[in-house]
Each structure stands twice: as structure tokens, then as C-alpha cells.
Amino acid sequence: MSRILGLDVGRVRIGVAVSDPLGLVAQGLEVLAVDDEESALARIEGLIAEWGVERVVVGLPRNMDASLGAQGRYTEEFAEKLRHRVRVPVDLWDERLTTVVAEKTLIDAGLRRARRKKVVDQVAATVLLQSYLDAHPDEGGSGYGFRRPGGQSGVDG
Predict the structure, then answer these.
(1) Separation CA 51–CA 6 (nearest Å)
(2) Which of 16, 88, 109, 139 would suit a FRET pair with 133, their CA atoms being 20 to 30 Å apart?
(3) Integer distance in angstroms from the first to the last C-alpha of the chain?
(4) Which PANTHER family match (predicted)?
(5) Cβ-contact 17, 28 below 8 angstroms
(6) Domain around 105
(7) Residue 156: its pLDDT value, please?
């Protein structure tokens, strides 16, 4: 199987996560400071090569009514620029509430506000990538169940 890179794109920081080689589990990788968009794109391109990534999933922030706001439009533009730079597919994935889940996870873990601010984007990238993996069992994700012989996913029971 191949690795998938997950990105939680912001104008100041980009959270980065990567899947295991089987595409089952997402793990946080780093938070990129976005000094300028060009250097952020170059770093992502480097991570794709370094980790042997074969697909990138970019979290698309939608409003609860599924519409796109300013950040959603910025993310679409960023993903399009990335598509022109890399030779792997770049998919957009609905990331509604991933930052909320990430923040709650960090609060539950007892992290203070200053520490949470430094890692919340990485955790959000991990949450969105795991969501993608779980929803795409043919690409390695668990599909919320076990894998039957022949690669079919199902629910144990």
C-alpha cells in the first residue's frame, strides 16, 4: 500500500498528518508555519517525496450548511496550486468539526492553551486524514469494520 498525506490548511499554519504504509492509521507529522505560500508548497512537495506519499487529502472547511466561506475558497485555491506542483492526486475532504474534535481531544488530554495552539492544526490534520482513511477502505482505510479476504470491508458480527 501507499502513504497518504493529510493537510489542515490555514493562512498562518498548516497541520500535516501521514498514514501508515498500509493506509490504516493516521499520525500527526508536523505543523508548518506559513511565512509565504511558496515555501509552504515547497515543504509539502518535499514531504511527499520524503514519505513516499501517493495521495494528498486537503481538508475543506465548509460551513454547517455545506456552503464555502472565505477559508474554504482559499483552501480550494491552495489545493489547486498544489495539484500543479505534484504528481500525485490531491483530493479535497470535508473537514467540518475536525478542529473542534482536535481541540476537545487536547483539552481532555490536559494540555494548556499555549501548547494546544501549537499542535491543534496537526491534530486536526490527523482527525481529517483518519476520517478519509475510514471512509475509503479500498485505499487502505478500515471502513469502520474489518477487512474480509479479497479486500472487502464489512462489519464484524
Answers:
(1) 12
(2) 109
(3) 27
(4) POLYNUCLEOTIDYL TRANSFERASE, RIBONUCLEASE H-LIKE SUPERFAMILY PROTEIN
(5) yes
(6) 3-148
(7) 35
By residue count, the chain amounts to 157
pLDDT digits (tens, 9 = 90+) for 78-125: 999 999 999 999 999 988 666 666 667 767 777 677 776 677 778 889
Signed CA dihedral, 143, 74, 120, 4: sign only: positive
DSSP 68: B
Residue 71 pLDDT > 80: yes
What is the value of pTM for the model shown? 0.79
In a domain, 154, yes or no: no
Cα–Cα distance for residue pair 19/6, rounded to 1 Å? 8
Euclidean distance between CA atoms 111 and 46, whole angstroms: 30
Q: Is residue 155 part of a domain?
A: no
Note whether residue 157 is domain-resident.
no
What's the structural domain count of the chain? 1
